[in-house]
Specification:
Elements lengths: L2 H10 L36 H15 L3 E12 L2 E12 L4 E15 L2 E3 L7 H12 L6 H6 L5 E14 L10 E2 L2 E2 L5 E7 L10 E3 L4 H4 L17 E5 L4 E5 L6
Parallel strand pairs: 3-5, 5-8, 8-11
Antiparallel strand pairs: 1-2, 2-3, 3-4, 6-7, 9-10, 10-11
Pfam family, one: DUF1853
Protein name: Type II citrate synthase
Organism: Vibrio spartinae
C-alpha cells in the first residue's frame, strides 16, 4: 500500500461539493509539500476504507503546521447511549481559533435521481443530512460542553471527498446539487453498470483492492472476468476510468 500516493490524493482531490462553510470544497492539506515519514500504527492496508482515510487525515493534520491536534475520535456518550463520535478538534495556528472537523470518503452511484453507495444501504442526501444535522452539532451538545469545558470550538467543517459515478448506458439527467448544495461536477468522473451491461464496455477492467479505490490500480492488479455477482465490484479500466459493476438486482 502506497501511503504517500494516498496522502497526495487526499491533499489534491477537491470535495464532492462546491459549497460554503461548513462544507469544505477543498482539502485543508493543500499547502503540504511533504508527508509524514513515519505513518502512525493505526494506518493499515486491511482496515475499512473510512478508517484508513481518517487515519491518513489524522497524520496529515499532525504534520500540518497550520493546525495543532487537540483530540480525535472522541466518543460522545450520554446516559449510557452513544451519541456519535467527533472526528477532530483542532487549534488553528493562524487564527488562534478552535475548529471541529468531520471527514468522510464516499463513492456514490447515480440511480433514479439519487446517489447510492455501492451496497445501496448508503445514500448521499441521507449522509449529508446526517453530517450537517447530527455530526457537526455534536461539539455543541450539552454533554460535550460539560465533559470537555476546555474546548472552545468556534467553527465547524465538513470535508467529503470521493467520487461520483454515472451509468453511461442509461440516459439520465445528472443532478447539479444535493439538498441544495452544489455538487462539484469535476468529481462526477466514474462509471457504473449492471452486470448485464458489462459486455458494452470496450476495454479491459482490473479489480481494485479497497485501498486503491482512491488512487487506482498498479501493474499487478488482476483483470476482472465476468462472473455471478452477489455485491458490487470496483474496477479500473485500461484507460484509467473507474467502474463499479453491480448485480442486476441492485439497488434492492
Amino acid at each position: 500500500m502506497d501511503l504517500t500516493a494516498i496522502a497526495q490524493w487526499v491533499r489534491d482531490t477537491p470535495g464532492l461539493f462546491l459549497a460554503a462553510p461548513p462544507i469544505e470544497s477543498d482539502s485543508p492539506f493543500a499547502e503540504l509539500a511533504a508527508f509524514p515519514i513515519s505513518w502512525s500504527a493505526s494506518v493499515r492496508p486491511n482496515q475499512r476504507l473510512g478508517l484508513l482515510y481518517q487515519s491518513v487525515c489524522s497524520d496529515l493534520f499532525k504534520s500540518n503546521p497550520a493546525y495543532a491536534l487537540t483530540a480525535e475520535e472522541v466518543q460522545i456518550i450520554d446516559n449510557g447511549k452513544t451519541r456519535g463520535a467527533i472526528d477532530f478538534i483542532l487549534d488553528n495556528q493562524h487564527t488562534s481559533q478552535q475548529e471541529h472537523w468531520e471527514v468522510a470518503i464516499k463513492f456514490y452511484l447515480l440511480h433514479q435521481g439519487y446517489w447510492f453507495g455501492p451496497n445501496a444501504k448508503d445514500r448521499l442526501d441521507i449522509k449529508l443530512q446526517h453530517m450537517l444535522k447530527h455530526q457537526l452539532p455534536l461539539s455543541a451538545h450539552p454533554i460535550v460542553l460539560q465533559q470537555y469545558p476546555h474546548w472552545q470550538v468556534t467553527s465547524r467543517h465538513l470535508l467529503m471527498q470521493g467520487r461520483l459515478y454515472i451509468n453511461p448506458f442509461t440516459d439520465a439527467p445528472i443532478p447539479q446539487d444535493c439538498l441544495g448544495y452544489a455538487l462539484n461536477q469535476t468529481q462526477i468522473q466514474g462509471h457504473w453498470c449492471y452486470q448485464a451491461q458489462f459486455h458494452q464496455i470496450r476495454e479491459p477492467l482490473y479489480l481494485l483492492e479497497r485501498y486503491q479505490w482512491m488512487t487506482g490500480r498498479t501493474a499487478t492488479n488482476l483483470r476482472y472476468e465476468p462472473a455471478a455477482l452477489e455485491r458490487a465490484v470496483h474496477c479500473q479500466s485500461e484507460s484509467g476510468i473507474f467502474w463499479f459493476i453491480v448485480p442486476d438486482s441492485w439497488p434492492q
